[in-house]
TrEMBL record:
It comes from the Eukaryota. PROSITE patterns: NACHT (PS50837), WD_REPEATS_1 (PS00678), WD_REPEATS_2 (PS50082), WD_REPEATS_REGION (PS50294). Keywords: Repeat, WD repeat. This is NACHT domain-containing protein. It comes from Pisolithus tinctorius Marx 270.
Length: 1330
């Protein structure tokens, strides 16, 4: 085509100059780009690209090809970006698509060619469309590679997101727009057979993108060619899009179609010995009725070898054949071919149907060898024959016949339609309903014979799967297609099978054998664990329905195992055995049954789980407080809104984030909700707006403004047609999701509307407000229905309707929940048990249970009929629980917390046991005894607030608890002479205790009217200073217990912390006005203006031992140092913490400053340079609320929201750096002496064997223990990011640390003395035990 060549020459000339301009820069970057930017992390649809064998025969389809080329090369900027070529099956659309793709590939201008295929729908190619296009375009223009790498580095979830809108925006549109100059020439993207993507749902969002205004954002030289049948959804979407050019294959004239098909037939039959007159070829072309697929099949029929019949005779038979009245022309051709190649005998036809059923019913196409491997394990021996008996003559209809490496699949989708329609195929009809049993049995039997331990020969347990070079190649080499298929799909075939005792026996054999672990291993390698819990649940239902109760129990146990450990197994497969097995509950069937086969794994020496924990999954990703959570209606996904201003969607089974983070709000997201169909998300924010998002695309579709204060609650109506919002501005507003305001009303005194909810029928709206009242409103008229429900003594923070709409439940800051009869507006229940405000409440769909989340860090469930607790409180969060929600089936609960995490809880597991030491509440304050031999802390144990004392060396409890306070103990101090203990409480009192006897001294010190935050002894011990939520600071005589003088008060300023100077002349207080106030001890007056500099509340203050400096810690994440004499800030703020700095304290000699933070770390600072000393102290998984030095300065004591206390040895962290760094080189013997005693136990003999291996090649600059960290995600990580072990969230807080003593001592301890790890990990399995 001369026209096509002219376009090509023009583009070459126009592109040369740009290429020269970039050549030097690209050449200089090429090596770095190729070495560093590996885009394998972006999902890619293998096998979906250009197939040159499908191109048009030269000289055919000239007119339509010219039309497409003219469109591609059109210079007009307003030209349509999309060209839709459509027509019925068999007219040659794909051949045209591949021809265009090939030609533009040869010119270097093909952006991508992406082909859908009906038989490849199980691969979910539609989820990888734009990620594949992005990678293809990056291969075409290497300038895109660093841009794609940047996108992935910014948001790692983009690589495997199922959100095609995100794929398009972040991986195609944005990288292309960031190129310094345009791509050379017009860039062509081909999408072939869009109609074969699957159901309408698979392409709904793809069509949305192709028809959206986003197409106009593409550079003007981009062209997208789409081919498909004109299915209703595709036609409706593309037909009306202004930027889509339509071209029907029916527009080609009959003469042109017959000419092209005649050329095609002539070419296909040219090598036959027989000759065919031109008139006959024309007649055959006319008979095709414009269907290239019919012509292809006719040629294959004519050329097929069959004894006693010549090709000319077959040609003549075809010409003389009269089509049957019913069916299409293609159907008739299929009948002709099948009758010719399949014997008429009953056996042959039965075999044909059986083989085709296997091919059509497998969820993924398999090559011949795998089809045979499956078939020889079918239920009936009569089915155990070579599929080639049937397939060998079917090369004209199926791929993979002449090339055994290619999966067998219909060459054209019309053959599938033909075989599965009884009216069309008749004697060749394939009934797919009979295929599940055979495929189930075959899959389980393949697994029984093929599963192996460490099947892919993974070399080291230190690596994550993504770090293993060539892992994909290993999987393809060691895991056959039929084994891969069996592992991933047997759970889909079993539930659809009728009960069969043989099938039940196979399932039982799998789950009662160690091979069940090997099956999980392969799923982890194949990234197939996400869908497994749901699939196993369906298998379990199939078993229990058929009274297979024993196997049912094992399957449920495996389901829980995968839910708890699926994430870690997918991250590093060896840790299925090294981490998941050791931390499985002792009552679990899996570890107890197979533990003897794994003698060389870690052992939980003490404190391990006995039963499956209620926490199934923990999700981490938000960078601040999680304020709101909700399940999607299908129960497979979870929605969350956070103080970090973002909204995220999570996989409810694996805890992995799905799609991109939804960003748009300018302030914290306080509330989120999902419409009943799951297609829309509503969010309310402190930025005073309600926003509506399209779930699949993650796009904001509406922003509703009108509120004048932060929005605290949003909810969808059941029909999804309305959204209600409640705000701090005192108004309730009802919105059309994509329209605008419908209703707005408020109360006369405009109390803050903290919570809103629609009734199940959508007729009513309930609101909870700061005036402690619940009200019900008519959703259409906004008039109040019934009386105001009153009874709470604090603001209502959350409301929920019962499923029948007759009752409501409210949660309040008064620590209670209350149930209301809405017909009478009367209270019918009071639920008490939480010890702090109840922030959230939800009602189960069956109406039987209520769940609540509280600032006491717990989640509780209640019987909705009796109001009694269903189980013990669910503990595990290390921050306030801000939001809770039931799953649609009521079997799970999701909670969102101020600890930045979401937890998913199993409601069907009984909460067995409490904290081993009886802890049920937070530890707000700890201290050493004056001689450092004891640790004291205020705790709540078994419902009582007490002071408990432990031995600082052993962690064992020493003596009886000190009892007296009625509520939580907030502060505790020992007198300088060590004879007395002072404690303060929420009960507004200070109590003194004899340190030797533990007996109370005198009466409680009373005077404060609210919570006491902090207390401090004067340096001589004669006075006690305290500060309180009543905005006062008071001084007490420690001997008499009497208040000395009037309180120190500074208006409405709220003091959080106090400190006294070493000479007892000054008192420093840190306050909610972001400042430090200095007071004269004697005169009770402020001595100077407030010390200002912090940008948030000041949470802690401390004087240096010489009295020259004050250190302050703040909610602004910084530490500041102040000169006492000048009251000026000394130097710059100390940065390092990433969350609130709760406590700062100087060492007794003044050389160090310690700080404790909500980022779970403790840091040390050199007071000479004010630089950090060593690495942060890591070990607490929760916020560190308190820290103090021992009197000799050699130890630190800390407490955390994880309900543990830790004693740290300071010296390793402050030891001077060695002059020479040591690089470790280790022996590779099995039990080499340990240079590095990595020990998570009180027994030294439990230390990690061969620990030198863990440090092999590492450079040790300081204390080696600094290189071994328990990260927040649960991994114990060593040098170079090596993975040693993964610890479940339920064991992290109590795990004994390398560098600290954990109190209580009954925590988790590990025996690693015989653990195989690193390149020896495979020895953990003892083969002879099988």
């Amino acid at each position: 085509m001369q026209q096509f060549r002219d376009y090509a020459i023009r583009d070459i000339h126009t592109g040369i100059q740009q290429m020269l301009e970039h050549s030097n820069r690209v050449h200089g970057q090429l090596t770095r780009v190729e070495d560093v930017l590996h885009l394998e992390g972006i999902a890619y649809a293998a096998g979906a690209g250009l197939n040159t064998t499908k191109k048009c025969l030269n000289g055919t389809r000239v007119e339509v090809l010219a039309e497409i080329v003219d469109w591609i090369e059109a210079p007009e900027p307003g030209i349509s970006r999309v060209f839709w070529l459509f027509g019925q099956a068999g007219v040659g659309k794909s051949a045209i698509a591949h021809t265009i793709a090939l030609r533009y590939k040869e010119l270097g201008r093909l952006g991508s060619c992406f082909c859908f295929a009906r038989d490849r729908q199980a691969e979910r190619r539609h989820d990888k469309l734009f990620t594949t296009i992005a990678r293809d375009m990056a291969d075409r223009d290497i300038r895109l590679k660093p841009l794609l790498a940047d996108a992935i580095a910014t948001d790692n979830s983009l690589g495997n997101t199922l959100d095609v809108t995100q794929q398009w925006q972040k991986l195609v549109l944005e990288p292309v727009s960031r190129l310094p100059s345009a791509l050379v020439g017009n860039v062509v993207i081909v999408i072939d057979a869009l109609d074969e993507s699957g159901s309408e749902a698979t392409r709904e969002h793809i069509l949305g993108i192709l028809t959206s205004t986003q197409m106009a954002e593409l550079p003007s030289n981009f062209r997208i060619l789409i081919t498909s049948r004109p299915l209703p959804d595709i036609h409706n979407a593309l037909h009306h899009a202004k930027h889509v050019k339509l071209w029907s294959m029916d527009t080609a004239s009959t003469t042109v179609a017959e000419r092209d098909i005649c050329l095609f037939i002539t070419d296909k039959l040219r090598n036959l010995n027989d000759t065919f007159p031109d008139n006959d070829l024309t007649l055959l072309a006319k008979k095709s009725d414009g269907l290239f697929e019919w012509a292809r099949l006719a040629c294959e029929f004519i050329k097929s070898h069959k004894g006693g019949v010549t090709a000319k005779e077959r040609f003549d038979d075809l010409l003389s054949h009269t089509p049957e009245e019913s069916g299409t022309l293609l159907d008739d051709m299929y009948n002709v071919i099948l009758r010719d190649i399949i014997d008429k005998s009953t056996k042959a036809r039965q075999r044909f149907r059986s083989v085709m059923r296997q091919i059509l019913w497998t969820l993924e196409s398999l090559p011949v060898a795998s089809l045979n491997a499956m078939r020889c394990r079918f239920a009936q021996v009569t089915d155990h024959y070579d599929v080639q008996i049937i397939l060998r003559p079917m090369a004209s209809l199926l791929s993979g016949i002449t090339d055994s490496s290619i999966p067998v699949r219909p060459l054209h989708s019309s053959f599938y339609d033909y075989l599965t329609d009884l009216d069309r195929s008749q004697d060749f009809f394939v009934d797919l309903s009979q295929g599940h049993l055979d495929l189930s049995l075959a899959s389980l039997r393949v697994m029984r014979e093929s599963l192996r331990f460490n099947i892919c020969q993974l070399d080291s347990s230190y690596l994550r799967n993504i770090e293993i070079s060539g892992l994909d190649q290993r999987i393809r080499y060691y895991v056959s297609p039929h084994l891969s298929y069996s592992c991933r799909h047997w759970t889909s075939h079993v539930p659809a099978s009728a009960f069969d005792s043989r099938l039940a026996a196979e399932i039982g054999e799998l789950f009662n054998d160690v091979r069940v672990l090997f099956w999980i291993e392969i799923l982890g390698l194949l990234n197939g664990l996400s869908a497994t819990p749901g699939a196993l649940l369906r298998v379990a239902k199939w078993l229990v329905t058929n009274e297979e109760c024993h196997t049912f129990a094992v399957v449920i146990d495996a389901l829980k195992f995968i839910r708890m450990f699926g994430g870690v197994i997918s991250e590093s497969t060896p840790h299925l055995y090294l981490s998941a097995l050791p931390f499985s509950p002792t009552s679990s069937l899996l570890p107890t049954r197979f533990s003897s086969m794994f003698p060389r794994i870690a052992r939980v020496a003490s404190g391990g789980p006995v039963h499956w924990p209620k926490v199934q999954v923990s999700m981490r990703g938000h960078t601040s407080l999680v304020l709101s959570v909700a399940f999607f209606p299908d129960g497979t996904r979870i929605l969350s809104g956070s103080y970090d201003k973002t909204i995220r969607i999570w996989d409810a089974e694996t805890g992995l984030q799905l799609g991109r983070t939804l960003e748009g709000h300018r302030s914290p997201v306080s509330s989120v909700a999902v419409s009943l169909d799951g297609k829309r998300i509503a969010s309310g924010s402190y930025d005073n707006t309600v926003r509506v998002w399209e779930t699949q695309k993650g796009l904001e579709v509406a922003e509703h403004c009108g509120h004048t204060g932060p929005i605290l609650s949003v909810a969808f109506s059941p029909d999804g047609g309305r959204i209600v919002s409640g705000s701090e501005d005192g108004t309730i507003r009802v919105w059309d999701p994509e329209g605008g305001l419908q209703l707005c009303w408020s109360l006369w005194d405009r109390p803050s509307i903290n919570a809103v909810a629609f009734s199940p029928d959508g007729e009513l709206i309930a609101s909870g407000s700061s005036d402690a009242a619940l009200r019900v409103w008519d959703a259409k008229t906004s008039s109040q229905v019934g009386k105001t429900c009153q009874g709470h003594i604090g603001p209502i923070l959350s409301v929920a309707f019962s499923p029948d709409g007759r009752q409501a439940v409210s949660a309040s800051s008064d620590c209670t929940l209350r149930m209301w009869n809405l017909e009478t507006s009367s209270q019918v229940g009071r639920l008490s048990g939480h010890s702090n405000q109840v922030s959230s409440v939800s009602w189960s769909s069956d109406g039987r249970r209520i769940v609540s989340g509280s600032s006491d860090y717990t989640v509780r469930t209640w019987d909705a009929e009796t109001g009694k607790p269903v189980d013990r409180p669910m503990t595990g969060h290390t921050g306030l629980v801000n939001s809770v929600a039931f799953s649609p089936d009521g079997k799970r609960i999701v909670s969102g917390s101020s600890d930045h995490t979401l937890h998913v809880w199993d409601t069907e597991i009984s909460h067995v046991g409490d904290h081993p030491d009886g802890f049920t509440e937070l530890i707000y304050s700890v201290c050493f005894s004056s001689d450092g031999s004891r640790v004291l802390a205020g705790i709540q144990a078994h419902g009582k607030d007490v002071i408990r004392i432990w031995d600082a060396g052993t962690g064992l409890q020493a003596g009886d608890d000190l009892r007296g306070h009625r509520f939580r103990i907030t502060a505790i101090k020992c007198s300088p002479d060590g004879t007395r203990i002072a404690s303060a409480s929420i009960d507004c009192t200070i109590r003194l205790w004899d340190a030797k006897t533990g007996l109370p001294i005198g009466r409680p010190l009373r005077g404060h009217k609210n919570v006491i935050y902090s207390i401090q002894f004067s340096s001589d011990g004669q006075q006690i200073v305290s500060c309180s939520d009543d905005s006062t600071i008071r001084i007490w005589d420690s001997a008499t217990g009497l208040q000395i003088g009037d309180p120190l008060a500074s208006g409405s300023v709220l003091p959080f912390a106090i400190a006294t100077s070493p000479n007892d002349k000054l008192i420093a207080s840190g306050s909610d006005d972001y400042a430090i106030h200095l007071w004269d001890f004697e005169t009770r007056s402020e001595v100077c203006k407030p010390l200002e500099g912090h940008t948030h509340w000041v949470s802690s203050v401390a004087f240096s031992p010489d009295g020259k400096y004050i250190a302050s810690g703040s909610y602004d994440h910084t530490i500041r140092i102040w000169d006492v004499d000048t009251t000026a800030q000394h130097g710059d703020p100390l940065y390092g913490h990433s969350n609130t700095v709760y406590i700062v304290v100087f060492s007794p000699d003044g050389t160090l400053l310690a700080s404790a933070s909500g980022d779970t770390t403790i840091r040390l600072w050199d007071t000479t340079t004010w630089l950090p000393v060593g690495f942060p102290f890591k070990g607490h998984p929760g916020r560190v609320m308190s820290v103090t030095f021992s009197n000799d300065g050699r130890r630190l004591l800390s407490s955390s929201t994880d309900n543990t206390i830790r004693v740290w040895d300071v010296e390793p962290f402050t030891a001077s750096q060695s002059a020479d760094c040591a690089t470790v080189q280790t022996s590779h013997s099995f039990h080499a002496p340990a240079t590095y005693p990595i020990c998570f136990s009180s027994l030294p003999e439990h230390a990690l064997c061969n620990s030198d291996r863990f440090f092999d090649g590492a450079t040790i600059e300081r204390d080696w223990r600094e290189l071994v960290q328990l990260e927040r995600d649960g991994w114990i990580v060593g040098p170079k990011g090596r993975l040693l072990l993964w610890v479940p969230v339920t064991c992290r807080a109590s795990l004994r640390s390398l560098r600290s003593l954990v109190i209580p001592r009954s925590g988790t301890e590990l025996d690693l003395s015989d653990m195989a790890h690193g390149d020896m990990w495979r020895h953990c399995f003892q083969h002879s035990s099988r």
